[in-house]
Design a protein that fits this description.
By secondary structure, this protein is of the alpha/beta class. It has three domains: 39 residues; 251 residues, NAD(P)-binding Rossmann-like Domain (Rossmann fold, 3-Layer(aba) Sandwich); 112 residues, Oxidized Rhodanese, domain 1. Helix content is 39%, strand content 14%. The strands form two sheets. It has an eight-stranded mixed beta sheet, with helices on both faces. Strand 5 and strand 6 form a beta hairpin. The longest helix has 29 residues. The chain is elongated, with a radius of gyration of 30 Å. InterPro entries: MOCS3/Uba4, Rhodanese-like_dom, Rhodanese-like_dom_sf, ThiF/MoeB/HesA, ThiF_NAD_FAD-bd, Ubiquitin-activating_enz. Its main location: cytoplasm. GO terms for molecular function: adenylyltransferase activity; ATP binding; metal ion binding; thiosulfate-cyanide sulfurtransferase activity; URM1 activating enzyme activity. It is found in: Cytoplasm, Cytosol. It comes from Aureobasidium melanogenum (Aureobasidium pullulans var. melanogenum).
Length: 451
């Protein structure tokens, strides 16, 4: 009986608590101080429905979604990295998404740049991407910037955004974007991808004024000097697997979402470099990075990169990175056109001892895609080492006319220069095919594979 009475009292207390709770909630809802006109909740019902799966996660929640809605994110580069990054940021509900790119869509982009499509070839990439993104989420404010980022425009553009993603593919743009982020106080999510590998890091986080010891490192802190210009390989030259660049772009979006949804005073994660290798086990490795360099030209107390040096054009990023593409190092007498190559080969029998030798210095994979009859594959990559280890190669070229060809006419010039240096005067003549196989396709054989 005592237990029954105790249970009855508990039920009465619970009922009273429930009634009090209901009255409190109804009172709050009816109080104008707690309720904006026609807006009972912080998000619309459409927002709850669209973003519900991430709203119920404690890492996002209501406050995180509101931060996403208020965030202004700039993506520099609407290619292989920028397409997936922008798609997932738009899907997550970022309020404003800006895209910077001066390129147009090409058919060779489509295997990896998923925001573009066949019917939008020749359209500005930013316009193509916005069309794709608007169909994905029409509630985001999209801002296309139809031009390449330059030192004179970077700071003005960056001032309109809170976070920046570097989705470009060249050292010149990477240094420029990082410098502009330091000067404008923006966190930067930077990534790269080539062949089957990728890298990702969050820079200038937390963003602090140059010289502040608690600020995150910038790109110059990690890479004080650019790589040698001749070692820089683009996707067009080295190749890229679509899912690899897609993974890196998605990871950029993830890091941006983490930055946006974090509470204002949350501690920044220690600086690190994430390495991805698709054909390795494990595929991911994390490398710790040092904090800001005391001698950094961009973010140290003695920095030389300033707003005036950036906007005035005195910061020459092309000269700093030593860009040498396209290569033009041989005199006209050491070059031959694709059309002249045809007549030269036609006038000689391949079985003659003095017939010209055609050296194809593309890598073996490209050589197997397409090659000229009787040509010899001698890849430029590692050529110097191979010539030193196998002296018979130079012996076989002695007294012969040698014609060197590659994809675009750059590596072939470097190969000619190397062969002349290592075996001066031994060959009857040595020339490169100007413009490589791209010129061959345009001038001689329109059916030659365009890859």
């Amino acid at each position: 009986l005592a237990h029954a009475e105790e249970a009855q009292h508990r039920a009465q207390d619970a009922g009273k608590l429930e009634t009090d709770w209901q009255q409190e909630i109804l009172g709050a809802l009816n109080n104008p101080q707690h309720q904006q006109p026609n807006q009972r909740f912080a998000l619309s019902n459409a927002d709850f429905k669209r973003y519900g799966r991430q709203l119920i996660m404690p890492q996002v929640g209501l406050q995180g979604q509101l931060r996403l809605k208020a965030a202004r994110v700039l993506i520099v580069g609407a290619g292989g990295l920028g397409c997936p990054a922008s798609a997932y940021l738009a899907g997550a509900g970022v309020g404003t998404l800006g895209l910077v790119d001066g390129d147009t869509v090409e058919e060779s982009n489509l295997h990896r740049q998923i925001a573009h499509s066949t019917d939008r070839v020749d359209m500005f990439k930013v316009d193509s991407a916005v069309a794709y993104l608007r169909a994905l989420n029409p509630n985001v404010n999209y801002v296309p910037h139809r031009a390449h980022l330059t030192p004179s425009t970077a700071l003005d553009i960056f001032d309109n955004y809170d976070f920046v993603l570097d989705c470009t593919d060249h050292p010149t743009s990477r240094y420029l974007i990082s410098d502009a982020c330091v000067l404008s106080g923006k966190p930067l999510v930077s990534a790269s991808a080539l062949r089957t590998e990728g890298q990702l890091t969050v820079l200038n986080n937390p963003p602090r004024a140059p010289g502040a010891p608690d600020g995150g490192p910038c790109y110059r802190c990690v890479f004080p000097r650019p790589p040698p210009a001749e070692s820089v390989v683009s996707c067009g030259e080295g190749g890229i697997l679509g899912p690899v660049v897609g993974v890196m772009g998605i990871l950029q979006a993830l890091e941006a979402i983490k930055l946006i949804t974090s509470p204002p005073n949350a501690a920044a994660a220690p600086p690190a470099l994430l390495l991805f290798s698709a054909y390795s086990i494990p595929q991911f490795r994390n490398v710790k990075l040092r904090s800001r360099r005391l001698d950094c030209a961009s973010c140290s107390a003695n920095h030389t990169v300033t707003e005036s040096s950036l906007t005035s054009g005195s910061m020459d990023y092309v000269a700093f990175c030593g860009v040498t593409n396209p290569v033009n190092i041989l005199p006209p007498s050491s070059r031959i056109s694709a059309a002249d190559l045809v007549s030269t080969l036609a006038s000689a029998s391949p079985h003659d001892d003095d017939a010209p030798i055609v050296l194809d210095v593309r890598d073996q994979t490209q050589f197997e895609l397409c090659s000229l009859p009787n040509s010899i594959n001698l890849p430029y990559q590692g050529l110097q080492t191979r010539l030193r280890e196998d002296t018979q190669i130079l012996e076989d070229l002695k007294g012969r006319d040698v014609l060197v060809v590659c994809k675009l006419g750059n590596d072939s010039q470097l190969a000619v220069q190397m062969l002349e240096t290592m075996s001066p005067g031994s060959m009857k003549s040595i020339k490169d095919v100007q413009g490589g196989f791209r010129a061959w396709r345009n001038e001689v054989d329109p059916e030659w594979p365009d890859y």
